[in-house]
Amino acid sequence: MKIIQDIKIHFLEKKNGRWSGGITNLYFALRNGLTKWKQDSMKFCNYKCIISGNNFDEIHHVIPFREIADEAFCLVNLDVREKIEDYSNNELNLIYNKINELHSFYGYGACLNKSVHKLFHDIYGYTDFDIDDFIDFVDKILCGDFNDWFNANNLRININFDYIEYIKSINDYLKSEDIDI
Length: 181
Prior knowledge:
It contains nine helices and two strands; from the N terminus they run H-H-H-E-H-H-E-H-H-H-H. It is mainly α and about 180 residues long.
């Protein structure tokens, strides 16, 4: 319950520079409730970029966050409302719990260097991508398609194959269960 109060205080006060008065803040606030998933993802990736082996800056959702959040709203039978304050504390708890449950189900995020993360999204988009796209991205890296880019950005290629095998197993499971996200 405290997280809900903290989020309401932080995001609903118009004094906050990130306040935009609309749905963007709802999804932004929901992302902030993923602390455990982020910590678990970092640990699983050995606190390194899974592509370069260097320090990472961001955790990539191999399934777009917006799709996971929208699925959560559907599963808890709540509509997406204009503002976060339009939800009761109980409704917000339902949404947060379901989003966290779905993040656990869909697996760990990929720790990435900011430049590598941007490269992925520049190629595959920011909203309409999936696990197959991430696997394809890694395959293209391994085939040397981005060697010039990595050299120009002073990044080495040191793939965390444990993570790649893990994400492939998640993908295989989702396909075998005919789960389309």
